[in-house]
Amino acid sequence: MNSLYPIFLKTEKLNILIIGGGKVGLEKLSFLLKSSPEANVEVISMEFHNEIKELAHQHKIKLTHRAFRKKDLKNRSIVISATNDAQKNKEIHHLAKKKRILINVADTPELCDFYLGGIVTKGHVKIAISTGGKSPTTAKRMRQFFEEVIPENMNEMVENLNTYRNSIKGDFATKVSQLNELTKSLINKQS
Length: 191
Prior knowledge:
CATH class of the largest domain: Alpha Beta
Number of strands: 7
Oligomer: single chain
Number of domains: 2
Strand content: 15-25%
Radius of gyration: 20 Å
CATH architecture of the largest domain: 3-Layer(aba) Sandwich
CATH topology of the largest domain: Rossmann fold
Strand order of the largest sheet: 3-2-1-4-5
């Protein structure tokens, strides 16, 4: 059973730290920026993959060229440890937990407070997919499937429903009832 609780974070309002500038750090940063291009992120590493440098240039990403220090955790909301040193990752995990900071240690599910699951984005619609860390490949394939089957004009439907919702008079229950009636045809199977 997958007991994870999905949430959608306003990453531009958080203070996110990625430790590690290699291929794994690149993967974590790319994934984050694909879904949240305005994310507030700093990457700390002794060396940076060229693509991380490109992403930093394209987005507002701070690159700090040096080794991680304990004080780098000050005022952080989320930490992603993506070094190629398992012992260093464990140390960072321990320090983050002492400060009650949510942490993801790359490829180490037992040291993760959260996972970066598959995400499908079609305009305003965002769907998160998780296998609870059991099979990232399954989440990836499901993401690819949903990207193909969800129509590109999904955003138009969302905008239209939002306009209609804003025009409905009454309390929350009334709005829900009217929107349910309007959208019922989306799930009714045709004979």
